[in-house]
Design a protein that fits this description.
The protein is of the alpha+beta class and about 325 residues long. The structure holds flavin-adenine dinucleotide. Flavin-adenine dinucleotide binds next to strand 3, helix 3, strand 9 and strand 13. Cell wall formation.
């Protein structure tokens, strides 16, 4: 991995032909033509200028916990967001995009601030979480954001948007649909509370995740989003089987995959997890091609057997799922 200082007047650390698999939770993905770690907003701007100068595409890597990268890698500049400052004033927490989400949850517990308890145990960075409106157990990061700061990758200017300008929805927001905007920071509006009660809620979330074995190795968490279903019989079947009401007519994709009898299905080194049917896992030497083929097979079978079309939650880079 030679450290090519190709950007003569910069202190950016630019590496060439770097395998991306180690930067993803799947441990899948070929090399990036260039890899840059951006430790500040200025370095992010410089990295984007470098991509512009080289006339190459760029991509953003957070914690890599929601990314499926092609076996051919990325033929441009991959930028890892490494800026991770966090400051607090009362209930307001200002945090940079590269900060680890789980560390943030624990930090807010120590500060006696409530609002992030249901997000405990979700891997990745704050920026990645904002971009995908990550959440669990009825809560999502978009619920507690006051503002989001983004960098426009064309003008290289930052803009701060209020929460109501970000169009947060289920695993969705404005930045997911516009890759020209990079999330660089967020201001969270949290509520002061009793540290012991907040810590107890975090412990409950982690225990629920542990019970469902949601910390599965070499996966990207839930591969598919929970689809909205309009088949009343299927909803009844789900509610009867699970003893719970479905929220907003969304049925867990894992239950559908299970009903279709696909648990343990394999393609090459990729498999539907035996622990959690919506986790597609790399059992050792899976390629992106294996994972894509498995995902397509799962989608086809679920559609054929249950009439529901699954859409991926995982972010593809250089692959079409
Ligand atoms: C074991 C496991 C459990 C999980 N459980 C959950 C869960 O309960 N709920 C949930 O919602 N998710 C879950 N996930 C998925 C994942 O953790 C989240 O989607 C996480 O928020 C992704 O953040 P990241 O920093 O790793 O993003 P990455 O994987 O690095 O990137 C994902 C996408 O976001 C883009 N991106 C990253 N950072 C930025 C940025 N700053 N600005 C703009 N675009 C950006 C990338 O280009 C890419 O397209 C789980 C994953 C794993 C492995």
């Amino acid at each position: 991995m030679p450290n090519a200082n190709l950007h003569a007047d910069s202190r950016l650390n630019i590496e060439e032909n770097v395998p991306l698999a180690p930067f993803t939770s799947f441990r899948i993905g070929g090399p990036a033509r260039f890899l840059v770690g951006a430790r500040s907003l200025r370095e992010l701007q410089e990295a984007l200028r470098f991509a512009q100068k080289m006339q190459l595409p760029f991509c953003i890597l957070g914690g890599g916990s929601n990314l499926l990268i092609s076996d051919d890698g990325f033929p441009g500049v991959a930028i890892r967001l490494l800026m991770h400052r966090v400051t607090r004033s009362g209930g307001m927490v200002q945090v940079q995009a590269g900060f680890d989400l789980t560390t943030l949850v624990h930090r807010t517990v120590a500060w006696g601030l409530s609002g992030l308890e249901s997000l405990a145990g979700i891997p990745g960075t704050v920026g990645g979480a904002v971009r995908g409106n990550a959440g669990a157990y009825g809560g999502a990061i978009g619920d507690v954001l006051a503002t989001v700061s983004v960098l426009d990758t064309v003008t290289l200017q930052t803009v701060t948007l209020r929460r109501d300008e970000c169009a947060f929805g289920y695993r969705d927001c404005r930045f997911k649909r516009d890759p020209g905007l990079v999330v660089v920071g967020a201001l969270l509006a949290l509520v002061p509370g009793d540290p012991d009660q907040i810590a107890a809620k975090v412990a409950q979330t982690l225990a629920k995740r542990e019970a469902k074995q949601l910390s599965c190795d070499k996966s990207a968490g839930s591969f598919f989003m929970n689809p909205k279903v309009d088949d009343a019989d299927l909803i009844d079947r789900f509610e009867e089987d699970q003893g719970v009401r479905c929220r907003e007519c969304r049925i867990p994709a894992g239950w559908l995959i299970d009903q279709a009898g696909l648990r343990n299905l394999r393609v090459g080194g990729a498999a539907v997890s035996h622990r959690h049917a919506n986790y597609l896992v790399n059992t050792g030497a899976a390629t992106a091609a294996d994972m894509v083929q498995l995902a397509r097979l799962v989608r086809k079978e679920v559609q054929m057997k249950l009439g529901v079309v699954l859409k991926e939650e995982v972010s593809p880079l250089g692959v079409v799922i």
